Amino acid sequence: MASFWPAMSKWLDTVRRGILETPKIAPFIFYGTDWLAFAHIVIAIAFIGPLRNPVKNIWVIEFGMIACVLLIPWGVIFAILRGIQSFWLPIDFSYGMFGFLPLWLARNYILELAKYP
Question: Which residues contact 39 (CB under 8 A, 6 or more apart)?
């Protein structure tokens, strides 16, 4: 891969080295990933609301849409601050772009559902 895409190869080597060295030097860093996982579970629980009562809980869908949009400026800002390679940004942004579409569709379906009392 190094001859095909040298920048990607170098980046992946940097990531690999970081993953291998961080637990030896600063294992407490992974404590942050534990809380990140917890936050994802808590947010996922909030999405049970629209399954139970979509019209009343449309705000959860809209919250998800806002999060998808905010992912792009957040990613740009912190990619610059953390030295993330620019070719990696479309991969990060894809979560926001692909997440927005099903939420937008769900919101439209809920708005249609709200028309019928």
Answer: none
Task: Mark whether 57 and 11 lie in a shared domain.
Answer: no
The dihedral of CA 39, 64, 74, 19: what is its sign? positive
Residues spanned by the domain of 5: 1-46
- Residues 28 and 56 placed together within one structural domain of the fold: no
Q: How many domains does the chain have?
A: 2
Cβ contacts of residue 95 below 8 Å, gap of 6+? 68, 71
pLDDT in tens, the chain (117 residues): 667 788 888 889 999 999 999 999 998 988 888 999 999 999 999 999 999 999 999 999 999 999 999 999 999 999 999 988 888 889 888 988 899 999 999 999 999 999 987
